[in-house]
Amino acid sequence: MLQVIKEMLCRLLGKGAVKGLGDVGRVRKMKWSPPPPDGKVRLNLGCGDKILEGYVNVDFAESRKGNRPDVIADLRALKFDREYADEILSVHVIEHFYPWEAEDLLNHWRDILKPGGSLVLECPNILTAAAMLLKEPERAARAVGKDGQMAMWPLYGDPAWKDPLMCHRWGYTPTTLVDLLMRCGFRNVRQERAMFKQQDPRDMRVVGEK
Prior knowledge:
The protein has helices at about 1-15, 100-110, 125-135, 135-140, 145-150, 150-155, 175-185, and strands at about 40-45, 55-60, 70, 85-90, 115-125, 185-190, 205-210. The protein is of the alpha/beta class. It has a domain at about 1-15 and about 40-125 and about 165-210: Rossmann fold (3-Layer(aba) Sandwich). The chain has a seven-stranded mixed sheet with strand order 3-2-1-4-5-7-6.
């Protein structure tokens, strides 16, 4: 069983990235940098406490950890004009919606994008969570300290928030997230390296164009 999990992770990350299962959380992280001041309109939807320079930061909550968004709005009913934005970034948001809500949500966001604009989604990769649970079931399921970040949190959300809005309602693999974007009419859909939170392999990034 452990060999099967190791082979799965090697397929996800590349053969050189995982020498052993213990390396799953030790992939070298990417460093995010603000975009250039090029006049493009970029939306950070569901920003939470992650207020990004160069983006219009939008969230339903008035404040997270003392950080306030630029715009307070329901992500399912945004008031931006059609074809308003060049990019929509949404980090660890899609998993907070039920699967029957997801297509309507992404179609709404697609309307806000300009032709050729990009949708960038990051969320937990449940393949990694499953691998961690199979590797050490009791330790992973207890979710003590950082162990929770690799298994139970990707599946259910961080219980420390004590907030139902922060619970996860669905989970994705790279394939199922790509499929979702394609069903919503996005083109050139592909997986890229995640830039936020724990990054690869716990998390993943999928990008599509209108």
